[in-house]
Amino acid sequence: MLSDEQLLRYSRQLVLPELDLVGQERLLGARILVVGAGGIGCPLLWYLAASGIGHITLIDHDVVEAHNLPRQVLFDDQDIGLFKSQVAARKLANHYPDTSVAAICGELRHISELPATHFDLLVDATDTPSAGRILNEAALQREIPLLYLAGVAMEGRLFVAQGYERDKACLECYLGKGSDPRAGCATLGVLAPSVGALALLGATQVIRLLLGENLDGLFCIDTWRFNTLRLQVRKDANCTACGFVAKE
Ligand SMILES: [Zn+2]
What we know:
By secondary structure, the chain is of the alpha/beta class.
């Protein structure tokens, strides 16, 4: 049940038939895990909290550095040297009282480091393929969607992994076939508004998934040339992560 303040705050979203009161209540009750408070994580977290996602757990091990500031819009010069997850949680709490953010400072190296809490959705906003594989393993075990977001230069990729479904691919089905573009950020560079655009498309997909809408396949965007592409990612029967599901 929304309070009078919430009815006013979210009134423009409530008008949307895709959300309505029921959808907004679902967002306020949602629990998601975001790993990575970088160029994708920062705008994603801003807009998820602004939209009224109720509970966010954020994992990040980095401290804020000067070269982060152009695209990691939760941070400013005063935050340099501080842990990103702690700064992000504080700033989001100051701006969006309906969202509780639990910050975990640490590098995700093993699945056992993930909180046992129930999550409706996992988001891989890291720049490390190894963290993505751990999240994929968790998503398969818990049978919840994993949203993968990767941006480099002026390009972005968005993929919803649902390998626990008999006919849907997991993140390994996708990553196993080629290189992960995220590895090239330091050498190839990244344009701030480009990665921001990808992050906000990701935030929209989080909301859609929480409301029971689905997105099949891989979405690619070249923000410089304004090209987009949708590709099917087939479930790999020999996938080392979800293959056993396909053989059942
Ligand atoms: Zn798979």
